[in-house]
Automatic annotation (TrEMBL):
Protein task: Catalyzes the transfer of the gamma-phosphate of ATP to D-galactose to form alpha-D-galactose-1-phosphate (Gal-1-P).
Organism: Mucilaginibacter ximonensis
Protein name: Galactokinase
Residue span, GHMP kinase C-terminal domain: 282-360
Record: residues binding Mg(2+): 126, 158
Amino acid sequence: MKHQLSQKFNEIYNKEAQHAFFSPGRVNLIGEHIDYNGGLVMPSAITFGTYLLISPNEDNVFRFKSLNFDESPTIPVRDSYQKDGDGWFNFPLGVIEHFTRDGHKITGLDMLFFGDIPIGAGLSSSASIEVVTSYALNELFNAGYSKLELVKIAKSVENNFMGLNCGIMDQFAVAFGEKDKAIVLNCDTLEYDIVPSNLGDYVLAIINTNKSRKLVESKYNERVEECQTALKDLNKELSIDYLCDIDAETFNKYKHLIANETVRKRAQHVVEENDRVKLAAATLAANDLAGFGKLMYASHDSLRDLYEVSGKELDAVVEYAKTNPQVAGARMTGAGFGGCAIALVHRDAFDTFSKELETFYTDKIGYAPSVYQSLIGDGVGTLAVASVA
């Protein structure tokens, strides 16, 4: 489809696209529900993502078209913009609102979006849309933002325009990703290290459970509130800004301060998961994929039992993976409540893995998953229009 986008743009708008951009999705290799708790995460950009073709118009309107969604609104250029229902176009509209509020004059545009990320699968399709839009507007209107400032704009859109209390990991990963490398990101300071991800004889399998979820409608915000409650309780005797400011040993010493057992479990996952990211970075650096795989399984078990954001679909994928000796490790990735799992699968066994998993999952769940093989790719950037012709 991406090689037909210029033609599609011409058919829709009866003119040529003048600019093209791409922003990837992301997987988080380990470190889940850590970003809003000030800790370490290990995401990487993938080779699926969002394409944006764009041309200015003189009609003083923004035309939003997508090959993935039915809604195609035309919105007049104004001094400010409000979220309009739950349509996909609110993500780029929120970016336009942020640029406008910052004093940049954004004039009429004809836009065509296309994403090959499975929607609602936990691969950051929304962050991909936000970042590709902010990057495009920055280029077209010479706004002068740095890439980090664009990441912060995209996060602000998610938090303040869309109403989701997410952290910064998704936007950061799709902006700063590098081919064949993972990012170890400190979500508090935004300092990061690039970790070579030499998977050797293994490949990254992305398994879409095909159980969709919308985070704003899920219990995501509830988990954020529970973590804030745990932090408040711990600060009766400690003085910390985030749960991830302490390690597991310190947590075990002070966990009695957290009165609610459920809230205590949430905090335990966060603190221990943060420690796992540190171990994971060391195992990857040492090319210890077996050790990394064990940490993946431990992460999933914690997300299932302590944080309770998994579900029978994600658990079924990991259950099968544990029976296959060609799999080094597996875990849910993303916020959970459906979406995707990832697995490290021996390259030569990938086709067999896909077929056997499909059978196992279908027997257990009642419908099939979708299994993809992805590479670790680059972050947001400009494309030649000819490359999507």
